[in-house]
Amino acid sequence: MTVRKKPLVVITRKLPDQVETRMRELFDAKLNVDDKPMTQPELVAAMKEADVLVPTITDRIDAALIAQAGENLRLIANFGNGVDNIDVAAAAKKGIAVTNTPNVLNEDTADMTMALILAVPRRLTEGAELLKSGGKWAGWSPTWMLGRRIWGKRLGIVGMGRIGTAVARRAKAFGLSIHYHNRKRVAPAIEDELEATYWDSLDQMLARMDIISVNCPSTPATFHLLSARRLELMQPRSYLVNTARGDVVDEEALIRLIDEGKLAGAGLDVFEHEPSMNPKLQKLAKANKIVILPHMGSATIEGRIDMGEKVIINIRTFFDGHRPPDRVLPRTV
User: Fold this and answer.
1) For the whole model, what pTM was predicted?
2) Does 24 participate in catalysis according to the annotation?
3) CB 315 within 8 A of CB 77
4) Of 274, 309, 316, 327, catalytic
5) Is 245 a catalytic residue?
6) pLDDT, tens digit, for every residue of 150-175?
7) Which of 22, 181, 230, 295 is catalytic?
8) By the 8 A CB rule, do 122 and 147 touch?
9) Any catalytic annotation for residue 322?
10) 170, 245, 251, 304: which one is catalytic?
11) Residue 68: what are its φ and ψ, rounded to 5°?
12) Residues 6 or more apart from 139 whose CB is under 8 A from it?
């Protein structure tokens, strides 16, 4: 009896122990126990030896890297929902399938979005930092540390997909009025449930909202979707929250408008050039004009394990000769 060889799976970052244990049981898994990001030469070496590469959203798998892939590489199983880090078209041209891990982080990301929607206008981090740093607090005062009310405000959601819809459900429970801009309207039943107003014109929506939540994917079409011109349409009292991708927003323009008092503030979990951080953002954070987080939107133990299980299912399905449930195809124009 011939025993089928286990596929060599190279994993670029440290994954939860439960996921790595299962990977070792099912595959010839090469782990990154130190969780040190792979250098470009290390990624090239991984592409040359692996049957399956399991990268994360921080690994840039571009056409030049894919061109150096070995003959055995048949699948890139991304540990992440987005695939903007992978040149899917180049992979397809070379006969390499690509998968992702959709629909497991919707609720976690929506939770973090709602946290930022609350934190920025209500000055939560500013108050917490005062006490943590040992700052002097004279006690309750009628005029001290005043923020802005959330209830009754208008929330404009840019990208009403699964995450945007999950954000809307939370926000409605907090008494916000739900508005959204999307490539197409959501189902009437969802609009009715959320009492949501659809805006065909993003420009018109931006000019009328109190809070804008960015929840669309990063694509060539959404790069700087919130450009300097569009950000300038927002009211000086309004806030922007971004838990999607940093390059959807013109970061320099956002910084300038907040610094000039033309926007009230922002809550950011993603950045245009991460992991590099614009020092101007840090300066605004120190001045308590914005809240910044280190890309924590999907960072739950349960979410990461669910992602790992999806990666495993995609790999097993592929090597069983079937179409992986989360296969990503090249975009068609």
Assistant:
1) 0.88
2) no
3) yes
4) 274
5) yes
6) 999 999 999 999 999 999 999 999 99
7) 295
8) yes
9) no
10) 245
11) -95, 5
12) none
